[in-house]
Write a structure and sequence with these properties.
single chain; DNA recombination; DNA-binding; three-stranded antiparallel sheet; Tyrosine_recombinase_XerCD; 16 helices; 3 domains; elongated; Integrase-like_cat_sf; 7% strand; 387 residues
Length: 387
Amino acid sequence: LRASLKKYPAGKTYYVKVWHEGLKKHYEINTHQAQKRKADVFLDKFLGDYNEWSKQKLEESNPTYLHNAVQAFIKHKRGDGQTSKGTIEGYELALNDLIECCPNPKMDVNGLGTLVKVGTVLYEYKRKLDNTLTLSTVNIRLRSVKAFLHWLYDQDQIKKIPKITITTTPPRDKLYPKEFEGLMKYVNDPIVTSWIRFARFTGYRLREIPKVHLGENGYYQAIGKRGKKREINLSDELVDLLHKIQATNYKPARISKSFQLAYRKYVLSQNSDYLPDGYSIDEIQLIGRDKINRQIAKLYIDRYCLQHGLDKGDLTEGQKRTAMTQGKTFHCLRHLYCTEVQIATGDYQKTKSIMAHSSVIITERYTHLDTIESTKAISEQMMKAQA
């Protein structure tokens, strides 16, 4: 048994430093004693209780305990060199919530239950998510739990993977060209206009735009997710927009809020019954942000209740938040660009390369092709090719 007393040069008390053979690691236990004689007494007592202490540490380190399994999974993801920081943060959020739903800190991962069995950890977890988060966020959390369970299965720590069903949601990132044209009427800042138009015709993400620069090969580039470089041959007009953007200190958050406000004004212009009292469609630009947001909230919640046959008074916080996701965000511009690239190329592999996506599956998710809607654009492309 390797155990000894240790005192740090600047410390006041002695520590017992002990090696745990089973766990292959050192532990330091504070004796809370400044005198060597009293620390020796503490050490003798510790050695007498060593077997019990050792068993307790082994039990606490049981890899099938949920909190230990979560720590091991996160550690694995941090070290695999393939998982982005944002994805890992998503795993941590989802799995910490899962731990909070466990009544027993020593919960075994084989006892999590299922999403449909009342009273089990997974059932209570799903119920908590549904009551507090949007449907899209619920799906993100469930995908994280699903990845964790598959990893446990690969590690032979669980015998069977509980079924995790992801509810499909209608694409909320689809922005129609007519919506784009409509919202642009309510953007009255030329710099914000430059940001929106640049994203619309390049597909760069909001936070990538300030970092776009001219590469040594003569093409403009920016580093995106997972360190992937995306290059574009910009037209003179787009280069001019980029220079206007980068000559100012507008923050991405400001651009995002401006886009959202413009879209909401456009939505109100199409639903005049929800305009504040005393305002007409021609006066939408005069309505303050807070009033716009209040009226939009009423519209989205009414629309959500109508679609799902619900009463406003019965909505959970999660349902209210889901209702508010009916709006469009700046990121929709990237989806719109991707959709039009796919119509132009007709080749998912080529579109994937242009977008710098990590897989064709992601490209397919980004392209919102409406068969009837896209026929005009496809015909125009064919006619241009024959001209």
